[in-house]
Amino acid sequence: MTEQGLCQTESNLHIQRAGEVYSQLRLIRPATKKMLRDYVKVFLGIDVPDKKICDSHSSPLDYLWHSFNSDASSLPSLSSDKNMQGLRSTNFSEKAEMNGDCVVWANRGGGKTLIAAASTLLDCLFKPACQVRILAGSGEQAGRMYDYLTGFIRKNFNDQLSGAIRKDGCRFINGAEVSVLTQSQASVRGLHIQKLRCDEVELFDPEVFSAAKFTTMSKNGITAALESISTMHRPYGIMKKAIDEALQRGVPVFKWCLWETIERCVGRNCSQCPLWADCGGKAKEAAGFLKIDDCITAMKRSSRAAWESEMLCRKPSLEKVVFDEFDLDVNVKMVDFNPDWPLYRAIDFGFVNPFVCLWIQVADGAVYIIDEYYRSRATIETHAEEIKKRTPIAEEKVAGTFCDPAGDSCEQSSGQSQVRQLRSLGVGARYRRSGIIEGIELIRRAIRAGDGKSRLLISPRCPRLIEALRCYHYPDNTTGADNETPLKDGVYDHPIDALRYFFVNYGRPSKTISRSY
């Protein structure tokens, strides 16, 4: 063999050996966050940003590491070829005790779906018998995550499949499986799987999402995890509720925005950049993938509200919100009972829906809401006792208790109206009939009058009312007269109704009805 032939043969052997090493490295589980980032960059071809830019935010890699590593304590070590060869047959001794739930709130184009697809592949490769399901707000969105996943597989992992890639799922030789679910009750009920990835939950049917919460179960040493992933579009939507619940339960919330995902800015003149007002130099520290020029174009195309909601993740759009000028910094402040000011109460009746009572004082034209009572499934007797207990002055000194006019209708069970029952229990109540829009306009005027000043202050002791003022909204996809009437959703409308009754009754005693029996 000639010298040239020997060199070619040696080169081919090196290439073959390199290919073997590459093939083996694909199946070694990344043991650290940095190793995970390198793994997905080399074998999946994606560079996941690992830099937090904004206060209280996370990097996209933080989410990927949490999603992948929540099972780490019960997964086998894969640090050697021997362990790698035994990956497919390893049986886990105990199921993990921790829960892998998380919420991802991120910007449009911020890689949420792509990174979730990478996490799905990692689950299937390194967690034998792991059952993963993809559920999205639309079939198109679910298909997008699955397309990313199958793209990764075709590039480097076809040999890890058991059978062909199907339209709605695929199975791996280690027993792991991933499927795409349709947005329906039937698709989620009866499921018992370890991992459920819900993409664009803001677009979910609320009942489907509620049912989906019961689908995950830890087994075979693999931790159960429900991941809720979305941009937050509405302050009253499913994503807002998912984040609130996560914070209450201590579930991780991973939030990133444009500045965690934009490419690093180099050589641009900040003073002439359209992004400068929001950026303030953040892009100089960034390490993402979104092209700066594309972001500038998107900003110019969109409204300011949409830009802040979709790309900066500052707050959801207020387009459908009734009281869009309500401001936590302006309208919420600690206010206590002042014995020198008159005290009023406002009541909205309910049983299955909540019974609401607000304690309100007025001074120098300003309205101060100092306390709230919010309770479902209790008797009028219970409510009356609690109202009197919370009222800081004697009943005869209360300037007025205004209520829902519907409460003057007789109940079939007792033969008495709720208004009459309250009066018999020592809580005087009166009312004035009015339209919903009239009361809403009076509340708006208090939040911000024509002179730009606010005359409404609410104590932090009233969280239900504060939330209602932020989230009370018009129905989606309505036209004509229906578009002017807010949605009665059974949640936010009741505190607002109580507040309306105060405003339509206060200062108008001649139009207020007080009946004796």
Characterization of this structure:
The protein contains 19 helices and twelve strands. Helix 5 (112-126) crosses helix 6. It is 36% helix and 13% strand. The protein is elongated, with a radius of gyration of 29 Å. The chain has helices spanning 3-25, 33-44, 60-69, 81-85, 112-126, 139-156, 185-188, 206-212, 238-249, 258-261, 276-279, 292-301, 304-310, 328-331, 380-390, 418-424, 436-447, 463-471, 493-505, and strands at 102-106, 131-136, 169-171, 177-180, 195-199, 225-230, 253-256, 343-348, 355-363, 366-375, 400-403, 456-458. It folds into two domains: 18-75 and 95-258, Rossmann fold (3-Layer(aba) Sandwich), CATH 3.40.50; 328-511, Nucleotidyltransferase, domain 5. Strand 8 and strand 9 form a beta hairpin.
Question: What's a concise summary of this model?
Answer:
With 517 residues, the protein is α/β, with parallel strands linked by helices. The protein has 19 helices and twelve strands. α5 crosses α6 and α17 crosses α19.
Q: Which helices and strands appear, and what pairs or packs with what?
A:
Layout: H1 3-25, H2 33-44, H3 60-69, H4 81-85, E1 102-106, H5 112-126, E2 131-136, H6 139-156, E3 169-171, E4 177-180, H7 185-188, E5 195-199, H8 206-212, E6 225-230, H9 238-249, E7 253-256, H10 258-261, H11 276-279, H12 292-301, H13 304-310, H14 328-331, E8 343-348, E9 355-363, E10 366-375, H15 380-390, E11 400-403, H16 418-424, H17 436-447, E12 456-458, H18 463-471, H19 493-505
Parallel strand pairs: 1-6, 1-7, 2-4, 2-5, 5-6, 8-11, 10-12
Antiparallel strand pairs: 3-4, 8-9, 9-10
